[in-house]
Amino acid sequence: MAQRCTLQCNSCSSVNAVIPILYKDGLRIVVIDGTCLDIPDSNENTRVFGRLGSPPGTRAGFPKVRLVILVEAGTNLIFDALICPYRIGKRVRGLKLLCSVTSRS
Fold first, then answer.
1. Over 60: is that where the pLDDT of 1 sits?
2. What does the chain look like in DSSP terms, one character per residue?
3. Residue 44: phi, psi to the nearest 5?
4. Is residue 87 one of the residues assigned to a domain?
5. How far apart are the first and last CA of the chain?
6. For the whole model, what pTM was predicted?
7. Per-residue model confidence as pLDDT tens digits over 25-79
8. pLDDT per residue over 15-24, tens digit each?
9. Dist CA 32 CA 81 (whole Å)
10. CA distances (Å), 55 to each of 45, 46, 60, 89, in order?
11. Are the CB atoms for 71 and 31 separated by under 8 Å?
12. Residues 6 or more apart from 59 whose CB is under 8 A from it?
């Protein structure tokens, strides 16, 4: 189960006026990136988020989460993010974030 947080930027129109490369042919230029983070070691975190694979009879030190972010290319502004279980890939979750991208009005 993924949790989603949307970050709002109230001054985006003024930023767009300063950095015109943010849009190409009316489309917003964005980048999808991601990383994995260790989270506190608990049974609930392990159940929800999982752990890295490890040799038989051993277990990874901490549960892991995958953080996937949507970044505006011109300003490096993170305007949407998703935290999901480690086992779900960055590309799969990145597609979910694309619904936050809008064309220039």
1. no
2. --EEEE---TTHHHHHHH-GGGEETTEE-EEEEEEEEE----HHHHHHH-B----TT---SSBEEEEEEEEETTT--EEEEEEEETTS-HHHHHHHHGGG-----
3. -65, -45
4. yes
5. 33
6. 0.68
7. 777 788 899 999 999 999 999 889 888 876 777 777 889 999 999 988 877 888 8
8. 444 444 467 7
9. 10
10. 20, 17, 9, 21
11. yes
12. 51
Size (the chain), residues: 105
Q: Could you give the number of structural domains in the chain?
A: 1
Structure tokens at 91: 């590309």
Domain membership of residue 94 (yes or no) is: yes
In a domain, 105, yes or no: no
Q: What range does the domain containing 84 cover?
A: 3-100
